[in-house]
Amino acid sequence: MFKDLDPILHSQLRLAVMSLLIGVKEAEFTFLREKTGATAGNLSVQVQKLKEAGYIEVTKQFKDNYPQTLCRVTPKGVDAFEAYVRALQGYIQK
Q: Which parts pass through the membrane (predicted)?
């Protein structure tokens, strides 16, 4: 039986953001934008959706008088990502 895939993580850009954050635990918005190739506007919307789902935490601060946005994966996000990967593996093994 195939498991349902998490609709939050099933978006290509949101999955890319989560994959990056799983590897580094915390990243600046600009790093995520560069690595994903997304526009700032699109990435901002997708980051907000991940935040609303409780998968990431977003911290806004200033660094050298410039705004800085940091994103960090939450334990709930790690669990959701691992469950998503297991569900995908189930599709591959069937």
A: none
Q: What is the pTM for the complete model shown?
A: 0.91
Whether pLDDT at 65 is above 90: no
- Going from N- to C-terminal start, the domains of the chain cover 12-89
CA distance 38 to 49: 15
Q: How far apart, in whole angstroms, are the C-alpha atoms of residue 40 and residue 46?
A: 10
- For tokens 């939450």, what's the residue? 74
The pair of structure tokens assigned to 41 is: 């506007």
H or E element at residue 76: helix 75-93
Q: How would DSSP label each residue in 50-78?
A: HHHTTSEEEEEEEETTEEEEEEEE-HHHH
For residue 77, give the nearest of 31, 19, 5 by alpha carbon.
19
- CATH fold for the domain made of 12-89: Arc Repressor Mutant, subunit A (1.10.10)
**Six-digit token pair at 48?**
């907000």
